[in-house]
């Protein structure tokens, strides 16, 4: 065996980057992606490096960490992340990694602490990341050299976004508009009424693609289709005169309530729009009626349609008058993705009186499981030797085209930055 001839790890990294750039720049536009982009573990590692470690990601909600010392954790590829509310109310984000010998610091998904204490040798950090205590480290030890490594955090409208990039892109315009569109929903006064984590055995891009179209909805989502109107724009070729009249009526109402509704894109990465639900439905519940009697914010009219928020690469959301639903995806492997769904209601709504969490979550629990089956079958077919990229419908799958274009553009642009070396 000739060990010398074996390629060095950084050669193979460069080769993977070249292969990805080649696949993305020669792909057929408006067709699904070439197989390796959905299957290959090296290309998956590149997705983590170039998308999930560089772009802004939806992490969670400020209502989940209401008071100082409240924290939440999540995992971005190999990176454990910690988000914690500081003594002064600031939301801090850190790599959840002790500066002593690197142990993961906080294991719980959520919790409350006075200080951040490493379970291994009890190095103790302030909520703002400063190292306060390290036992017997000798006279030359300088604690100020060993603070937790910060990540970028941005909050708006109750949302927490994080970025592991050194210098993330400016997203302030989207954040300001997000806050504006969410204003009627009183995001300072919400709580999580129900939460689910499901794992889909599929590449994260298939999970997003599935969400970006409703070509599959009539065949798969009977519960959701009681309330969801699949198109969100009067310019949509499928928009009927009845739909346009409904939109005009709702827009008068939204204007009266100062509830922003305009369809707005921020590049292809973020989209905001308020749209009606099916005539007669006011919420995404089984019967289309409000799932929570206490409405969000100061709203008094249950019929508000739904605010739809899209944030690539990892979130979509629906906000009605009575509750909001947030979705977060996190990749777990080349063919494995976690989908976290949270149902939000007014924080003063009383469980068992104003809402029943089991009822509230029914439509999206059903829809998530239907989407899991669809997406896992999509992955199984893509793994076949017979798979070849197929054409998207421009009428029904324009959202998928936009996502795949966004992904390809981000990858090609991030790949053209200098090649990172293995540390
Ligand atoms: O969750 C969503 O936003 C989308 C709307 C269309 C298909 N999917 C259910
Ligand atoms: Fe954290 Fe030792 S690794 S205290
Ligand atoms: Fe679906």
Automatic annotation (TrEMBL):
<keyword id="KW-0411">Iron-sulfur</keyword>
<keyword id="KW-0408">Iron</keyword>
<dbReference type="InterPro" id="IPR036922">
    <property type="entry name" value="Rieske_2Fe-2S_sf"/>
</dbReference>
<dbReference type="GO" id="GO:0016491">
    <property type="term" value="F:oxidoreductase activity"/>
</dbReference>
<feature type="domain" description="Rieske">
    <location>
        <begin position="56"/>
        <end position="162"/>
    </location>
</feature>
<dbReference type="InterPro" id="IPR017941">
    <property type="entry name" value="Rieske_2Fe-2S"/>
</dbReference>
<dbReference type="Pfam" id="PF00848">
    <property type="entry name" value="Ring_hydroxyl_A"/>
</dbReference>
<dbReference type="Pfam" id="PF00355">
    <property type="entry name" value="Rieske"/>
</dbReference>
<keyword id="KW-0479">Metal-binding</keyword>
<dbReference type="GO" id="GO:0005506">
    <property type="term" value="F:iron ion binding"/>
</dbReference>
<dbReference type="InterPro" id="IPR015879">
    <property type="entry name" value="Ring_hydroxy_dOase_asu_C_dom"/>
</dbReference>
<dbReference type="GO" id="GO:0051537">
    <property type="term" value="F:2 iron, 2 sulfur cluster binding"/>
</dbReference>
<keyword id="KW-0560">Oxidoreductase</keyword>
<keyword id="KW-0001">2Fe-2S</keyword>
<dbReference type="InterPro" id="IPR001663">
    <property type="entry name" value="Rng_hydr_dOase-A"/>
</dbReference>
<protein>
    <submittedName>
        <fullName>Rieske 2Fe-2S family protein</fullName>
    </submittedName>
</protein>
């Amino acid at each position: 065996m000739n060990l010398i001839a074996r390629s060095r790890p950084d050669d193979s990294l460069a080769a993977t980057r070249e292969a990805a750039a080649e696949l993305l720049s020669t792909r057929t536009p408006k067709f699904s992606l070439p197989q390796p982009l959905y299957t290959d573990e090296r290309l998956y590692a590149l997705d983590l490096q170039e998308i999930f470690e560089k772009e802004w990601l939806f992490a969670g909600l400020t209502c989940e960490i209401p008071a100082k010392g409240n924290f939440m954790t999540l995992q971005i590829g190999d990176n454990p992340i910690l988000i914690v509310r500081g003594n002064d109310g600031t939301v801090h984000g850190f790599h959840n990694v002790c500066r002593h010998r690197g142990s993961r610091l906080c294991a719980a998904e959520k919790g409350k602490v006075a200080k951040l204490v490493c379970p291994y040798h009890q190095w103790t950090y302030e909520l703002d990341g400063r190292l306060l205590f390290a036992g017997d480290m000798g006279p030359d030890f300088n604690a100020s050299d060993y603070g937790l490594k910060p990540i970028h955090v941005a909050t708006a409208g109750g949302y927490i976004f994080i970025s592991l990039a050194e210098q993330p892109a400016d997203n302030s315009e989207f954040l300001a508009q997000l806050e504006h569109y969410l204003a009627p929903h009183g995001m300072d006064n919400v709580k999580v009424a129900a939460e689910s984590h499901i794992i889909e055995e599929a590449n994260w891009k298939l999970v997003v693609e599935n969400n970006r179209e409703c070509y599959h909805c009539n065949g798969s989502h009977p519960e959701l289709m009681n309330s969801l109107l699949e198109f969100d724009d009067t310019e949509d070729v499928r928009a009927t005169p009845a739909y346009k009249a409904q939109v005009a009526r709702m827009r008068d109402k939204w204007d009266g309530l100062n509830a922003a509704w305009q369809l707005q894109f921020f590049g292809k990465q973020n989209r905001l729009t308020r749209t009606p639900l099916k005539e007669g439905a006011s919420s995404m519940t089984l019967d289309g009626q409000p799932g929570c009697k206490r409405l969000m914010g100061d709203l008094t009219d249950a019929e508000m349609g739904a605010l739809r928020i899209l944030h690539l690469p990892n979130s979509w959301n629906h906000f009605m008058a009575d509750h909001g639903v947030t979705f977060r995806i996190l990749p777990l492997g080349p063919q494995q993705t976690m989908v976290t769904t949270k149902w939000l209601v007014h924080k003063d709504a009383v469980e068992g009186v104003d809402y029943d969490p089991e009822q509230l979550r029914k439509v999206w629990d059903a829809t998530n499981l239907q989407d899991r089956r669809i997406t896992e079958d999509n992955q199984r077919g893509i793994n076949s030797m017979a798979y070849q990229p197929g054409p998207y419908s421009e009428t029904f799958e324009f959202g998928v085209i936009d996502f795949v274009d966004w992904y390809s553009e981000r990858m090609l642009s991030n790949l053209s930055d200098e090649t990172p070396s293995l540390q």
